# Entry
Amino acid sequence: MDANYATRLSWFRQFKEHINASKSTLIVGVDIGKDKHHAFLGTPAGRTIHRRLIF
# Structure
């Protein structure tokens, strides 16, 4: 494993821990591969706020 990969992996793990510990973070997933874009909104704890949002 090269140094660049190890640094990026470490940064990603810290970022992931930060998001999972946050109570004010909103996870947004958007499928942009269609004419109508489908989105999902949720929390890091796994609670769904809104799904099947189409715009």
User: Anything to note?
Assistant: Residues 3-54 form one domain.
